[in-house]
Design a protein that fits this description.
- With about 200 residues, this protein is an alpha+beta fold.
- The chain has two domains: about 20-80, 434 Repressor (Amino-terminal Domain) (Orthogonal Bundle); about 105-195, Jelly Rolls (Sandwich).
- Helices cover about 20% and strands about 30% of the residues.
- The protein is built from five helices and eleven strands; from the N terminus they run βαααααββββββββββ.
- The protein has helices at about 10-15, 20-35, 40-45, 50-55, 65-75, and strands at about 5, 105, 110-115, 125-130, 135, 145-150, 155-160, 165, 170-175, 180-185, 190-195.
- Keywords: DNA-binding.
- It holds the Pfam family HTH_31.
- This is XRE family transcriptional regulator.
Length: about 200
């Protein structure tokens, strides 16, 4: 596994979205060329002025859905806002060792986003849980989630449903708007492939 780096969640976008500066500069140039203020663009894209300001400075991430709304305000497609090399081929390949490095969310809980693209509709993540650790989301988030256990044992709790135990080769699918918790009750490291839609920060 690649070396891990412990960061807090607010640091995650800078590490995982190197194209943000390009996107911010592109948006600012388009907005100014059309004589639009930040508030004009915010109204058209149905988002806040402060968010757009951060986006133009490359200080925040953007979902595929919001990127499409911003592009529509310029009568463009979302792909038109990205560098040419991100639009040249519909087939995207990430070679071994090229994926973003592993990030330690908390002690014994690591994630690696396997493919990162602002236009993708799904987000594949490799989740590693050391024994007696868990990854939880008590408030839920929009979308749907699929998990597949690659190695080890996983206990999955979704909302108020009974906790289910999954082992290597088992999978589960659930609405991620519901509170959910993934924990490793075993003595061995658990490795889980999770696929979420829409893309989001882990």
């Amino acid at each position: 596994m690649t070396p891990s780096t412990r960061v807090n969640n607010k640091d995650l976008p800078e590490r995982l979205h190197p194209e943000r500066l390009y996107l911010g500069e592109r948006l600012r140039a388009l907005r100014q060329a059309r004589g639009m203020t930040l508030q004009d663009l915010a109204d058209a894209a149905q988002c806040s002025r402060s968010f757009l300001s951060m986006l133009e400075r490359g200080q925040t991430d953007v979902s595929a859905t919001l990127l499409q709304r911003v592009a529509a305000a310029f009568h463009l497609s979302a792909a038109d806002l990205l560098p040419d090399d991100r639009r040249a081929d519909s087939l995207k390949i990430v070679r071994h060792g090229e994926a973003p490095r592993t990030v330690e969310l908390s002690h014994g809980v690591q994630v690696q986003i396997l493919f990162n693209n602002l236009l993708q509709k799904i987000q594949p993540v490799l989740l590693t849980l050391e024994p007696s650790t868990e990854h939880r989301n008590d408030t839920g988030h929009a979308g749907e989630e699929f998990v597949y256990v690659l190695e080890g044992e996983l206990q999955l709790t979704v909302n108020e449903a009974p906790t289910r135990t999954l082992r290597s080769g088992d999978s589960a699918y659930y609405p991620s708007a519901l509170p959910h918790r993934l924990s490793n009750p075993g003595k061995d490291t658990a490795r889980i492939l999770t696929i979420s839609t829409p893309p989001r920060l882990v």
